[in-house]
């Protein structure tokens, strides 16, 4: 019986090629988009899910609560790992993790590998299986390393890697290390990525931090007993804080503050902004993907329903004949649902083809890394199948049920009575345009914020300054660059800094917050170590005093502060004020610079202290250029840097590129909303066109009578359009507060942001009305121009 229904359904669809094509294209496009968005959300939610001990592994962080601030940090002190394992019940394993891009050479070839310096417990805690070597013996010695399959293929080609010796650059010195094992390639949904593992004791600064409880440097993970929860561990570690963080607690208590150690579950680190392995994505981002997917599928289903009902009007003779010959309602319902099932099935197959073709472009444009290999998960396949069946029932079930319940007498008279479903029809139109208007409004506001970010004054020269990461460079790199670049006429000045401005090509950013007492009250400030000519190179405005100068030998104990720091000190004239920031040598203020955005516009400007130390504390070189050919200048500077530092891994970049790179997630939001809005508008217009066809068909007699009585074409078009336009106006009223709420919440993530103006929603509404009017007018004009004799004769 079911086979018979499907055969009849196939014949009917072949007769209605236009109807079938429009429905299949609309539904398949929506399914493709929904599939891509859902896979993106699934990937973000399943980060680090493959670890067998994942539910018992936590990253530790400190929370320092003061009178007016809360500071969080994931850098932990070196001796804490061993202390927790020894003194806290329930701690099974611990590992410190230090990430570094490590120069490696084997034979005559040089490589740059992403290395993780870890403890011996690492492989027992995390599930990174070995394909060669023994897990129990690997990393037991300080001179051992583990490499991945991909790294082994690059280094050794066809050679057996285990037992081979490679040289790695640690702290500027080449040291031989032995490959003890080969690990399987790290899954792309792992927060911990590496090409090479070596012991934590090989960290360049290990000797300096060993045994120190006042030098927090690296992340720390613990594996707890299954019976111990994160909350129970946090209570158990309180005595450790009071026992070993004595000096830190003394400083904090001056501010009437507290210090606690908290936990972050391994599976939460990817979307938790407090984690060291935070992806930079908002926790709402995966939900946004699911919501957009649901919206797109929803309007596609609405479109499917509208087209199905509009098509049923042209099949009144068939429906009436079937009913008069004794067809039961259930049989008619199954027949029409079979057609809907075939349409959805073909749409689903076509959507898979679209997904395979579009996936590389999708990943490139939106910055994702989605792969169809995710479908190896049987639960994901089951979820996709369930979603398909649900969509089929929703999209095909309602039209089939509606047609099956028609009165046989009314059908034989050619009156399907579908106009009684106007409430449902109008509701569907409103829902479609609410979605479209929300997406248009959100896209506009996101674009405004991005434009504001791009044009906002940062308080420093970002256009003419080049940033170079000092990676693997000799200690005299900055001095050598000054000497070499002095011969280039386009170079104006050169300086160095501990931290970058924006996000450079090395992908690194950070800050350093310090607290100290000033006249008996606690003071908190950001601290940046800089070199001579920092203010000159960045065009920072000196509002009081002076910048660091080689003409003053005492500047090694001097600081330059910003206006907010001066305000925090509460001194009318801060020049000459002494600050005890290290409890050893007093630092005196020599200058005040105008506040500038040394961090993202998401954050407010904090108090800032700039200090000077030896060149080993610097992480970046800044070079100010004055030229009409910045690309050529960048190339010359890059070549000079490569000569000075042959081990340089990352390229130079202009600071304006760095600042824009910080907002790549917002740019991704904009692209996603814009694409979603365009697709929603297209599918909504298809559905609106289908409804217009249905309504015009119902009102043929009315249109004919009006034309006979002298109604003009424009009058008829306006009459037929106004009901639809009224629905779009209702959608504008509903969508505007919804869009305002979501964008207001989103903008709260920026300390510096645009205001949401009323005219944004007016423009979105007018655009939606215009699109709807054009769509409806295509059918309205056709109906108004039709010969009234034809419609009246039919009656």
From TrEMBL:
It is found in: Cell membrane. This is ABC-type lipoprotein release transport system permease subunit. Residues 30-229, 448-632 form the MacB-like periplasmic core domain. It comes from Chitinophaga niastensis. Residues 291-408, 676-785 form the ABC3 transporter permease C-terminal domain. It comes from the Bacteria. It is a multi-pass membrane protein. PANTHER family: ABC-TYPE MACROLIDE FAMILY EXPORT SYSTEM PERMEASE COMPONENT 2, MEMBRANE COMPONENT OF TRANSPORTER-RELATED. Its main location: membrane. GO terms for molecular function: transmembrane transporter activity. Keywords: Cell membrane, Lipoprotein, Membrane, Transmembrane, Transmembrane helix. The chain crosses the membrane at residues 20-42, 284-305, 340-359, 379-401, 428-447, 672-697, 724-744, 756-778. GO terms for cellular component: plasma membrane.
């Amino acid at each position: 019986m079911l086979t018979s229904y499907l055969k009849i359904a196939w014949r009917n669809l072949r007769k209605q090629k236009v109807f079938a094509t429009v429905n299949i294209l609309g539904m398949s496009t929506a399914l493709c988009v929904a599939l891509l968005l859902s896979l993106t959300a699934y990937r973000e939610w399943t980060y680090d899910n493959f670890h067998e001990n994942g539910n018992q592994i936590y990253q530790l962080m400190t929370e320092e609560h003061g009178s007016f601030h809360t500071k969080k940090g994931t850098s932990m002190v070196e001796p804490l790992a061993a202390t927790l394992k020894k003194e806290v019940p329930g701690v099974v394993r611990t590992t410190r993790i230090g990430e570094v891009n490590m120069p490696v050479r084997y034979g005559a070839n040089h490589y740059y590998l992403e290395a993780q310096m870890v403890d011996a417990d690492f492989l027992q805690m995390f599930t990174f299986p070995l394909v060669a070597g023994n897990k129990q013996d690997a990393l037991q010695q300080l001179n051992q390393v583990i490499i991945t399959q991909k790294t082994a293929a690059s280094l050794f080609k066809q050679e057996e890697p285990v037992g081979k010796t490679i040289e790695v650059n640690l702290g500027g010195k080449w040291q031989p290390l032995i490959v003890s094992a080969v690990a399987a390639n790290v899954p792309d949904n792992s927060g911990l990525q590496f090409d090479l593992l070596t012991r934590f004791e090989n960290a360049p600064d290990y000797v300096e931090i060993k045994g120190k409880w006042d030098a927090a440097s690296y992340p720390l993970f613990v594996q707890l007993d299954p019976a111990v929860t994160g909350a129970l561990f946090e209570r158990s570690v309180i005595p450790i804080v009071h026992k070993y963080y004595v000096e830190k607690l003394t400083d904090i208590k001056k501010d009437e503050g507290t210090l606690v150690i908290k936990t972050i579950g391994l599976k939460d680190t990817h979307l938790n902004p407090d984690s060291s392995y935070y992806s930079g994505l908002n926790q709402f981002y995966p939900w946004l993907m699911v919501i957009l997917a649901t919206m797109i599928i929803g309007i596609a289903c609405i479109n499917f329903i509208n087209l199905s009902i509009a098509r049923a009007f042209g099949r009144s003779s068939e429906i009436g004949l079937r009913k008069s010959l004794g067809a039961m309602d259930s049989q008619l319902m199954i027949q029409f649902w079979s057609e809907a099932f075939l349409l959805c099935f073909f749409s689903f197959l076509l959507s898979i083809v679209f997904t395979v073709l579009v996936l590389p472009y999708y990943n490139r444009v939106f910055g994702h890394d989605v792969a169809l290999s995710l479908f190896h998960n049987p639960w994901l396949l089951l979820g996709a199948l369930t979603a398909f069946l649900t969509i089929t029932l929703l999209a095909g079930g309602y039209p089939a049920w509606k047609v099956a319940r028609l009165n046989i007498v009314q059908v034989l008279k050619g009156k399907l009575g579908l106009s009684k479903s106007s409430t449902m029809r109008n509701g569907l139109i409103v829902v479609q345009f609410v979605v479209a208007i929300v997406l248009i409004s959100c896209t506009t506001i996101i674009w405004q914020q991005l434009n504001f970010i791009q044009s906002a004054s940062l308080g420093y020269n970002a256009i003419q300054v080049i940033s170079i990461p000092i990676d693997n460079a000799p200690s005299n790199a900055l001095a050598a660059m000054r000497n070499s670049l002095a011969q280039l006429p386009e170079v104006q000045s050169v300086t160095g800094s501990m931290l970058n401005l924006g996000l450079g090509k090395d992908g690194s950013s950070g800050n350093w917050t310090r607290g100290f007492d000033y006249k008996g009250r606690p003071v908190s400030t950001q601290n940046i170590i800089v070199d001579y000519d920092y203010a000159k190179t960045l065009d920072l405005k000196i509002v009081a005093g002076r910048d660091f100068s080689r003409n003053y030998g005492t500047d090694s104990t001097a600081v330059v502060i910003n206006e907010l720091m001066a305000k925090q000190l509460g001194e009318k004239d801060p020049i000459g004020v002494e600050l005890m920031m290290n409890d050893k040598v007093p630092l005196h203020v020599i200058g005040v610079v105008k506040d500038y955005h040394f961090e993202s516009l998401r954050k407010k400007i904090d108090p800032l202290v700039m200090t000077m130390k030896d060149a080993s504390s610097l992480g970046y070189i800044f070079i100010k250029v004055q030229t009409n050919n910045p690309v050529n200048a960048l190339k010359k500077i890059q070549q000079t840097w490569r000569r000075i530092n042959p081990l340089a891994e990352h390229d130079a970049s202009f600071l304006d590129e760095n600042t824009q790179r910080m907002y790549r997630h917002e740019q991704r939001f904009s692209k996603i909303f814009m694409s979603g809005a365009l697709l929603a508008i297209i599918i909504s217009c298809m559905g609106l066109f289908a409804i217009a066809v249905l309504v015009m068909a119902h009102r043929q007699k009315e249109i004919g009578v009006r034309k006979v009585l002298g109604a003009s074409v424009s009058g008829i078009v306006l009459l037929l359009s106004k009901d639809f336009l009224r629905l779009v106006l209702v959608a504008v009223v509903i969508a505007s507060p919804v869009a305002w709420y979501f964008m207001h919440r989103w903008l709260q993530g920026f300390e510096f942001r645009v205001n949401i103006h009323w005219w944004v929603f007016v423009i979105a509404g007018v655009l939606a009305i215009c699109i709807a009017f054009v769509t409806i007018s295509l059918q309205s004009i056709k109906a108004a121009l039709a010969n009234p004799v034809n419609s009246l004769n039919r009656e």
